[in-house]
Amino acid sequence: MNHQTNLIDLGDLSFHHWKEIVGLALKIQEHPSDFYGALTGKILATLFYEPSTRTQMSFQTAMLRLGGQVIGFDNPQNSSVAKGENLKDTITVVSSYADIIAMRHPLEGAAKAAALHANCPVINAGDGGHLHPTQTLTDLTTLSKYKGRLSGLTIGLCGDLKYGRTVHSLIKALCHFPNNEFVLISTEELSVPSYITDLLDAHGCHYQKISALTDAIPELDVLYMTRVQQERFASQEEYLAQKDVYVLDAEKLSGAKKDLCILHPLPRVDEIQIAVDDDPRACYFKQAQCGVYARMALILTMLQRPELCGQPLFSGKESKIHACTNPKCITNQESYLPRHFVENGDLLVCEYCDQRILI
Ligand code: NCD
User: pLDDT band for position 332 (50/70/90)?
Assistant: First the structure.
């Protein structure tokens, strides 16, 4: 059973420790060779049940640069998952081989479910449309380096704010820093889930929801573009209706601040024109590189100072009566998982996927 050193959400670390990890990432970026060999003999397992280029390879590069080694799969069809193995059994076994696991899965709450059965720390490398905390550490590292601050920023987030897990994790993090304002640029259909706006309200953060990118651009310090998450739509028609709504091009950028920082977690499809890559404000490829340093800093911290990521997996109660109503919640696929909810007035909040259920 779990030793409770995991990174499922950034909330598993204190605010102070995020800043320490970002500081360490910047230090590694300045002097990478000082950290080579720091984790000799350690093994990272990368279990990717969903496609990935940057997240998977930056985790692998991070571990190799630290002197450790890497095992894992990037296509579950080549593992015993194809024979019907459940998550519990895969994780129980892999965590007896590896010292730390980075896992990406299409179902929401899957990383937490994995952590429940792992005998080594688990890092959430993306759970469906829910969260992506290590992309957020990457984004915070990038903003610290290229923008010079994490507070007093007007941040525009544009595109698929509904299914974009990077957006959810980034908002959750940036609302902890003082004087940040958010401009949520999306169609009605792809606006942020209500648990995110509730969080902004709870932190007293100023935010506006708008649909026109051109109107928002002049006031922004940061523009975080996102891909429309084709794989999470119920139908192709719904995806096609949203696909090309937002495209950043030179004309739109003509109204932007000279020191705007343009980010994108990548992969880009059509939402940023290729010509924008040559604009000095385009930071997304530097951002992808920062991902290696952020993940080096995270793995080092989790293996060398495990006490820092020691949050219990659940704070609410197990329920034998209620089931999560989110069909994409891991608890609806892996039926042996205990169902845990936090009570919030007349709502129950699923502790795996944040879905709210009216009692
Ligand atoms: C993102 C993801 O997987 O959520 N990519 C990444 O990790 N860098 C964004 C996306 O897939 O659109």
Answer: very high
Which atom of ligand 1 lies nearest, measured to the CA of 165? 4
User: At CA 122, angle to CA 128 and CA 13, rounded to 5?
Assistant: 90
Closest CA to 154 of 207, 227, 194: 207
Q: Ligand 1 centre from 132 Cα, in Å? A: 8
Chain CA centroid to CA 239, Å: 22
Q: How far apart are CA 359 and CA 346, in angstroms?
A: 6
Cα of 150 from ligand 1 centre, angstroms: 21
- Residue-wise pLDDT tens digits, 166-215: 999 999 999 999 999 999 999 999 999 999 999 999 999 999 999 999 99
Q: What percent of the chain has pLDDT over 70?
A: 99
In angstroms, what is the span from residue 212 Cα to ligand 1's centroid? 23
At residue 1, does pLDDT exceed 70?
Answer: no
Specify whether the CB–CB gap between 169 and 133 falls below 8 A: yes
CA of 94 to the centre of ligand 1 (A): 24
Q: What is the dihedral of CA 196, 276, 57, 132, to 10 degrees?
A: 0
The residue with tokens 């930071």 is 283
Report the nearest atom of ligand 1 relative to the CA of 265.
8
Q: Which residues line ligand 1 (CB under 6 A)?
A: 54-55, 126, 132, 135, 165-166, 227, 265-267
Strand order in the sheet with 317-318: 317-318, 340-344, 347-350, 356-358
Give the Cα separation of 155 and 153 in Å (integer).
6
Best residue among 166, 225, 286 to mutate for probing ligand 1, ranked by most atoms within 8 Å of CB: 166
Separation of CA 312 and ligand 1 centre (Å): 27
Return the pLDDT at 3: 58
What secondary structure, in 3-state letters, does 249-270 show?
CHHHHCCCCCCCEEECCCCCCC
What string of H, E and C letters represents the secondary structure of 148-196? CCCCCCEEEEECCCCCCHHHHHHHHHHCCCCCCEEEEECCHHHCCCHHH
The yes-or-no verdict on residue 308 having pLDDT over 90 is no
